[in-house]
Amino acid sequence: MSQQAVNILHSHRSIRKFLDKVIDEEIRQQLLQSARMASSSNHLQCVSIIRVTDPAMRQQIMEYCSNQEYVYSAPEFWVFCVDFAKHAEICPTAQLDWAEILLIGAVDTGIMAQNVLATAELLGLGGVYIGSLRNQMEKVGELLQLPKHTLPIVGMCLGYPNQDPPIKPRLPQDLMFFENHYQPLDKAKLAEFDQVTADYYLARSNIDNNWSKNVIKSLDKPVRPAVLAYLQKQGFVKK
């Protein structure tokens, strides 16, 4: 990989504003080929992608996704799904209700989605993951007519960037890369990172926030409590 390509990957930003320019079929096929070539546990290939082009469906999904406007307006919107439905047809006795099966599917989905987004950025596109579709996961599944043993895991908006946002700070290596053994949280280094992120949020949005505050805001509450029931309805995580 060229240094230019490495620099592009190291400069990842979520893009939420796009030019009014379609992504042509040749590029779309390159994105799909990157998806197809993603690593897959045991060669199960348990991920499917649904490209949503129907405006009415886009509008409905946008409403399910906390009314994030770019879900509707982005040139492309794809939904990445754990898909063991075809496996259930091939092997009717497949034991798909084990927790490990969902882990396999979720890991493979993340790998495939990142392959697509990385390729998109290398080709001059930008994008953003849409995890908020899990706010109404069951309704999204119904809209996409997903059968049992499938789950909508994450959406992705893709298009040509119409913004140049700053790079969001990431955890320093000392807080996420260890040798041989896990290391306890270094409070001094955390404080330094909180200051870095506080400066970022203040400059970007003029808000009082930092990484620790964001963690608390995200996790100190029930997190999508309806998800488990839907997972089990779809045949997952029963044991």
Automatic annotation (TrEMBL):
One Pfam entry name: Nitroreductase
Keyword NADP among record annotations: yes
Coiled coil: none
Record keywords: Flavoprotein, FMN, NADP, Oxidoreductase
Domain Nitroreductase: 11-160
Presence of the UniProt keyword NADP in the record: yes
Top-rank taxon, per record: Bacteria
UniProt xrefs under PANTHER family: OXYGEN-INSENSITIVE NADPH NITROREDUCTASE
Family named by the database record: Belongs to the flavin oxidoreductase frp family.
Name the record gives this protein: Oxygen-insensitive NADPH nitroreductase
Species in which this protein is naturally found: Gallibacterium melopsittaci
Lineage of the organism: Bacteria, Pseudomonadati, Pseudomonadota, Gammaproteobacteria, Pasteurellales
Gene name of this polypeptide: nfsA
